[in-house]
């Protein structure tokens, strides 16, 4: 066996893991920190991808359009998330399990709306020219686009953790999560905190959507393929644990890639799912956990 | 909460039985009777979901798995019955020389097939439930895990095209345990079996809800820790409910096959599993009739509204999830009680029983 | 505990009564072996009523769910063909009245709606379907009720039914011409990439048989589930296998992911070209410039210069909800409606038996946008010209190869000695 036969799945898998991480990052906020199970997260990802397409219709120079699309997708998907929080989710904090079903309904509506608004076959999102080409790593020609996905995930993780740790808003979020009543008594507006957390979580889905639009099709069905894997990653990583989510996403991505290399693409999906399910049976609290009782 | 009188529920089941077994065959056309049979299959699975989710608080998002066990066991038997001595046609295509896969062989036997429809879900749900509940996996984790299982199974079936028929599924069954399926009289028989099984399932949960076990199950849903301190193991209570609900899903799946004439992975995957939940939520998860009636209503909506206004149906289904869960967490069957309560004590809002329990689950 | 067991007994008794009631009825039904007996498996009498001034036809396409992305256009073009026929006076002087049903990308729904169209709406014929799975779900139902189903998409062949007319290509009209084209290009190493379902699996089984005959080595074969877009792992395997050409049987949006991963990995049309059988003018725009220069094998392209094509394109562009481009499955759907009109007018009746008898004359033709097509009355497929096109920058196809004459349909590949006779026999036995 060539060395590139071993290295290729590792690198490809890392990129797949990075995309999973981007999809899961927002969930680790809304699910991990707020306990909301947003099944429409995949559709927010789709909104991000369509936002990238619309940006490309305005900014024709493809070299610039993707950097511009990233913040736009973040904002647009975030606003959709905010709208969802204000209209529906905020009435449901007392019964988080039911948010799962409500957001299934939201997802259905968003999917059908996208099918009717945009060309049914989907729209193209063009990759910028500076992402053409490969990087030779130990004999394997690694696509630059994959490196971009990994860098994007790294930037999002860094920004998110810095924001949570070092800004006063991040401190307010953590305070609210740990003790809502105490936070409120200390003068923190938990309503604002909830809204901003949900805005950020949904916005991150939008960023993931831009990355996904460079990998697959941009159409009404695209979100559906990410939602369950993303939830599994958050669960396997341990609730509210950023580092757990990162490791879990990477592990799933790499496992998926090696499985695909050794077996078939379909079987790889099945094996990766079973791997995570078995892992969660053995360690239901996930990789990391601070509070043993945080298990939902 | 006042308990409804038991005879009231029982006579309700009686009326339902007369409607399904006697009135429906007389007034409905063959096509709509067959559709009603299909809704009955979903309703059987829904009764089980009502037990596990409504009474037990376990959001079973992967009932498609158990639906599949029953459905594929039945479909494999009917396929072999139709093929006779030959290898089923779809298998020839991918490898003409290979023999029938090993796991198909026992399904030639009618007795083994019926046993498998009952035992396979019991074994799998028992194993899965034991592992999950003993480790106290619940709430959203349980929901996502079961849903992931449904997705994994659907993908597995899709990718094993020679062994299971893949995405196309199994179809074109000519016989049902020796009876010609094309004959309208036999179609009626199949419908009646499905309807009778639905009634049996309703009777079974009616009995369970009245029993000590039913009370323990609700207690486990509302305050698991307290049940534990009282000396019961909540895991066992949940396990029984989960296994029974799996068995019902399997029975529903098994009857779905001769009625609809086809089974595919799409009927068991994420979307199908969620659709099963939709009916239960609409009808009222914790009530006796709610899940069955809700499932039938969703099935009917799909057949009729889906015809006249397909795009609209998707929106309606989406809105149904939102409106019902948001404003009517106990489903349509809670409406009469709500009106009554509102008339008696206009100022007081009836507190939803479910909310408290789930709050505890996530925040505890 | 005794009360419980008594209750259980009541419960069991009630259940038993219901089941017995059901089984008692079984006495009336036919058992295996008496299919020929009266009341057995003979199809129910047709309820089609054409005595008025209209004829009812059913359209069955997925308007929701994953396949809606492809099938909506077929539905629209069927409506257009019906409107055209109505403007020209209808079929046998009767205006078409259509009933549109949604298959919802769910094969049991296709079966249910077929039954509804035939027994509730009493339509004279049904048009639609896209995936092979949807057709296989419709087949038993349309045979049971002795209806007619017109299927407009290229497929894997090895099928025929007295109740189905196939207006898309069978394998010897699309896949075999594509393989001949590859052999003529001097291709020695071929990689097969497909979605994981019946069409790619069967098509690739046939491709492998023919490749052995042509001396083309199959250097790899990869499948990805229909609903998955990510092809990066599989493309890495393609890069390692170093094929001369890739035969692509991927369907739907997964194609976009495939093309992107291919391009990311540095593969290009110049070095490792792709020949596709599911990418047409409709699909190409969603893939952007990255698909430019790749090949596709179809019978119809929008760029074909035939007498009737300009009118077809013009009518479609004017039609409400038009996507603006025409494609092979759309054109095959358009053919199916006109073919039905020709069949009925030759038969002088909407009756299924008479329509099938008219087909048997082998004289039913239509001047289609792809050229003149003739219906084969025995296998219910139509003759078609073979074309290979190359995608240009405007997402149109430049024709690079055309068959000398129209290719007669041969769904069971009887004219090809490399196709094993025993497989053919087993398949026809299993079907019969």
UniProtKB/TrEMBL annotation, chain B:
<dbReference type="InterPro" id="IPR043428">
    <property type="entry name" value="LivM-like"/>
</dbReference>
<dbReference type="InterPro" id="IPR001851">
    <property type="entry name" value="ABC_transp_permease"/>
</dbReference>
<feature type="transmembrane region" description="Helical">
    <location>
        <begin position="36"/>
        <end position="54"/>
    </location>
</feature>
<feature type="transmembrane region" description="Helical">
    <location>
        <begin position="188"/>
        <end position="209"/>
    </location>
</feature>
<keyword id="KW-1003">Cell membrane</keyword>
<feature type="transmembrane region" description="Helical">
    <location>
        <begin position="112"/>
        <end position="133"/>
    </location>
</feature>
<keyword id="KW-0812">Transmembrane</keyword>
<feature type="transmembrane region" description="Helical">
    <location>
        <begin position="60"/>
        <end position="80"/>
    </location>
</feature>
<feature type="transmembrane region" description="Helical">
    <location>
        <begin position="6"/>
        <end position="29"/>
    </location>
</feature>
<dbReference type="Pfam" id="PF02653">
    <property type="entry name" value="BPD_transp_2"/>
</dbReference>
<protein>
    <submittedName>
        <fullName>Urea ABC transporter permease</fullName>
    </submittedName>
</protein>
<feature type="transmembrane region" description="Helical">
    <location>
        <begin position="239"/>
        <end position="263"/>
    </location>
</feature>
<feature type="transmembrane region" description="Helical">
    <location>
        <begin position="312"/>
        <end position="335"/>
    </location>
</feature>
<keyword id="KW-1133">Transmembrane helix</keyword>
<dbReference type="GO" id="GO:0005886">
    <property type="term" value="C:plasma membrane"/>
</dbReference>
<feature type="transmembrane region" description="Helical">
    <location>
        <begin position="275"/>
        <end position="300"/>
    </location>
</feature>
<dbReference type="GO" id="GO:0015658">
    <property type="term" value="F:branched-chain amino acid transmembrane transporter activity"/>
</dbReference>
<dbReference type="InterPro" id="IPR017778">
    <property type="entry name" value="ABC_transptr_urea_perm_UrtC"/>
</dbReference>
<keyword id="KW-0472">Membrane</keyword>
TrEMBL record, chain C:
<protein>
    <submittedName>
        <fullName>ABC transporter substrate-binding protein</fullName>
    </submittedName>
</protein>
<dbReference type="InterPro" id="IPR017777">
    <property type="entry name" value="ABC_urea-bd_UrtA"/>
</dbReference>
<keyword id="KW-0732">Signal</keyword>
<dbReference type="Pfam" id="PF13433">
    <property type="entry name" value="Peripla_BP_5"/>
</dbReference>
<dbReference type="InterPro" id="IPR028082">
    <property type="entry name" value="Peripla_BP_I"/>
</dbReference>
<feature type="signal peptide">
    <location>
        <begin position="1"/>
        <end position="32"/>
    </location>
</feature>
């Amino acid at each position: 066996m060539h060395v590139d036969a071993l290295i290729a799945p590792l690198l490809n898998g890392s990129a797949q893991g990075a995309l999973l991480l981007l999809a899961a990052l927002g969930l680790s906020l809304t699910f991990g920190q707020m306990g909301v199970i947003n099944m429409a997260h995949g559709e927010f990802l789709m909104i991000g991808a369509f936002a990238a397409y619309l940006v490309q219709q305005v900014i024709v120079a493809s070299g610039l359009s993707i950097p511009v699309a990233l913040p736009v997708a973040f904002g647009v998907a975030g606003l959709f998330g905010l709208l969802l929080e204000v209209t529906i989710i905020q009435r449901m904090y007392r019964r988080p399990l039911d948010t799962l079903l409500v957001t299934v309904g939201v997802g259905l509506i968003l999917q059908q709306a996208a099918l009717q608004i945009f060309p049914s076959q989907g729209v193209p999102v063009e990759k910028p020219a500076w992402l053409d080409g490969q990087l030779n790593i130990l004999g394997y020609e690694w696509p630059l686009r994959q490196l971009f996905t990994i860098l994007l995930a790294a930037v999002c993780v860094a920004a998110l953790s810095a924001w949570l740790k070092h800004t006063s808003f991040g401190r307010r979020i953590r305070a609210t999560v740990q003790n809502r009543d105490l936070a409120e008594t200390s003068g923190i507006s938990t309503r604002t905190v909830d809204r901003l957390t949900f805005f950020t979580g949904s916005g991150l889905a939008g960023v993931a959507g831009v990355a996904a639009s460079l990998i697959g099709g941009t159409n009404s069905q695209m979100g559906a393929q990410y939602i369950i894997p993303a939830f599994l990653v958050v669960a396997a990583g341990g609730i509210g644990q950023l580092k757990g989510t990162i490791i879990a996403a990477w592990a799933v991505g790499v496992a998926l890639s090696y499985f695909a290399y050794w077996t078939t693409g379909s079987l790889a999906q099945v094996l990766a799912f079973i791997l995570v399910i078995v892992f969660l049976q053995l360690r239901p609290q996930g990789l990391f956990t601070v509070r043993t009782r945080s298990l939902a | 909460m006042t308990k409804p009188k038991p005879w009231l529920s029982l006579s309700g089941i009686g009326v339902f039985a007369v409607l399904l077994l006697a009135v429906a065959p007389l007034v409905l056309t063959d096509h709509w009777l067959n559709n009603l049979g299909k809704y009955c299959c979903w309703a059987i699975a829904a009764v089980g979901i009502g037990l596990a989710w409504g009474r037990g608080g376990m959001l079973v998002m992967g009932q498609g798995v158990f639906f599949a066990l029953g459905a594929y066991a039945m479909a494999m038997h009917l396929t072999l019955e139709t093929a006779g001595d030959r290898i089923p046609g779809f298998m020839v295509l991918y490898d003409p020389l290979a023999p029938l896969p090993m796991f198909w062989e026992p399904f030639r036997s009618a007795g083994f097939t019926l046993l498998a429809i009952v035992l396979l879900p019991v074994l799998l749900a028992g194993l899965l439930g034991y592992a999950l509940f003993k480790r106290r996996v619940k709430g959203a984790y349980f929901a996502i895990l079961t849903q992931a299982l449904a997705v994994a199974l659907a993908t597995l079936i899709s990718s094993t095209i020679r062994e299971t028929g893949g995405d196309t599924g199994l179809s074109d069954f000519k016989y049902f345990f020796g009876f010609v399926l094309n004959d309208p009289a036999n179609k009626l028989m199949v419908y009646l079996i499905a309807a009778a099984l639905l009634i049996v399932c309703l009777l079974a949960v009616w009995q369970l809800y009245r029993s000590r076990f039913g009370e323990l199950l609700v207690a486990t849903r509302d305050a698991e820790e307290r049940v534990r301190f009282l000396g019961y193991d909540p895991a066992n209570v949940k396990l029984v409910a989960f296994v029974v609900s799996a068995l019902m899903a399997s029975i529903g799946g098994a009857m779905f096959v001769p009625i609809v004439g086809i089974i595919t992975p799409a009927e068991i995957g994420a979307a199908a599993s969620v659709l099963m939940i939709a009916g239960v939520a609409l009808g009222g998860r914790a009530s006796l009739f709610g899940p069955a009636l809700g499932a039938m209503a969703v099935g009917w909506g799909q057949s009729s509204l889906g015809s006249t206004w397909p795009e609209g149906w998707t929106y309606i289904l989406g809105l149904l999830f939102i409106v019902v869960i948001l404003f009517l967490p106990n489903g349509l069957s809670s409406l009469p009680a709500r009106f009554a309560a509102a008339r008696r004590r206009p100022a007081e809002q009836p507190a939803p029983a479910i909310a408290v329990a789930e709050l505890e689950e996530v925040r505890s | 505990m005794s009360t419980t067991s008594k209750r259980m007994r009541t419960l069991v008794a009630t259940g038993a009564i219901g089941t017995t009631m059901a089984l008692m009825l079984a006495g009336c039904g036919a058992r295996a072996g008496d299919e020929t007996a009266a009341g057995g498996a003979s199809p129910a009498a047709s309820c089609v009523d054409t005595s008025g001034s209209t004829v009812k036809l059913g359209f069955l396409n997925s308007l929701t769910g994953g396949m809606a992305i492809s099938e909506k256009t077929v539905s629209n073009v069927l409506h257009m063909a019906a409107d055209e026929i109505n403007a020209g006076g209808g079929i046998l002087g009767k205006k078409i009245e259509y009933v549109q049903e949604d298959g919802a990308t769910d094969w049991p729904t296709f079966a249910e709606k077929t039954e509804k169209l035939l027994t509730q709406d009493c339509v004279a014929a049904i048009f639609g379907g896209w995936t092979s799975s949807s057709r296989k779900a419709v087949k038993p139902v349309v045979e049971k009720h002795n209806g007619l189903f017109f299927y407009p998409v290229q497929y894997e062949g090895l099928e025929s039914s007295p109740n189905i007319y196939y207006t898309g290509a069978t394998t010897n009209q699309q896949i075999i011409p594509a393989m001949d084209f590859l052999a003529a290009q001097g291709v020695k190493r071929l990689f097969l990439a497909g979605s994981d379902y019946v069409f790619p699996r069967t098509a690739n089984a046939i491709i492998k048989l023919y490749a052995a005959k042509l001396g083309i080595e199959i250097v790899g074969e990869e499948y990805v589930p229909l609903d998955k877009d990510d092809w990066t792992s599989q493309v890495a395997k393609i890069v390692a296998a170093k094929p001369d050409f890739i035969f692509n049987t991927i369907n739907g949006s997964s194609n976009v992911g495939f093309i992107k991963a291919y391009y990311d990995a540095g593969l290009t049309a110049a070095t490792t070209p792709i020949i596709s059988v599911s990418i047409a003018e409709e699909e190409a725009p969603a893939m952007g410039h990255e698909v430019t220069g790749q090949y596709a094998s179809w019978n119809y392209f929008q760029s074909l210069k035939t007498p009737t094509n300009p009118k077809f394109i013009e009518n479609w562009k004017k039609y409400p909800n038009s996507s603006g481009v025409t494609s092979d499955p759309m054109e095959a759907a358009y053919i199916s409606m006109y073919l039905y009109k020709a069949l009925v007018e030759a038969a002088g009746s909407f009756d299924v038996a008479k329509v099938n008898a008219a087909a048997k004359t082998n004289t039913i033709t239509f001047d289609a946008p792809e050229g003149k097509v003739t219906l084969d009355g025995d296998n219910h497929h139509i003759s078609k010209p073979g074309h290979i096109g190359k995608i240009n920058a405007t997402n149109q196809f430049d024709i690079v190869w055309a068959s000398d004459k129209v290719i007669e349909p041969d769904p069971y590949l009887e004219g090809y000695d490399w196709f094993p006779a025993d497989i053919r026999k087993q398949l026809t036995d299993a079907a019969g």
